[in-house]
Write a structure and sequence with these properties.
121 residues; 4 strands; two-stranded antiparallel ribbon; alpha+beta; two-stranded antiparallel sheet
Length: 121
């Protein structure tokens, strides 16, 4: 392919270079959309991962392994009284506050790409 130049007064425009520049400008204008798409895809993957792990945890709590169990606890027998350490409320509090709330706080704290009208100019 032969390169062709056009003289317009003092300005000389090389057609292949002009097409390349135009393509570069068009692609650079699409870059924010690409970054936004990648951000959405990563966030969606993390949300799916969290939901799958919470579903697995719920399944484990609903149907524990009969031979191994789920939690380590101590059973005390004292004069017609049986106590469990930790008790049920402590276990539920730990699962809810430490595990579930920790996961949710981690998800809320994810750094997301913020877009504004002036961020890519």
């Amino acid at each position: 392919m032969r390169s062709r130049s056009i003289s317009v007064g003092v300005l000389v425009i090389n057609e292949p270079a002009a097409r390349t520049y135009k393509r570069i400008v068009e692609e650079s204008q699409m870059l924010p959309s690409l970054v936004r798409l990648a951000d959405y895809m990563i966030t969606e993957s993390l949300v799916t991962l969290v939901l799958n792990n919470l579903t697995d945890l719920l399944a484990l709590l609903a149907n524990p392994n009969k031979s191994k169990g789920v939690f380590l606890l101590t059973v005390n027998f004292v004069h017609e009284l049986t106590t469990f350490t930790p008790n049920e409320s402590d276990v539920l509090k730990t699962v809810n506050s430490n595990v579930v709330e920790g996961i949710l706080q981690s998800m809320v704290g994810l750094p997301l790409v913020h877009f504004s009208a002036h961020s890519w100019h």
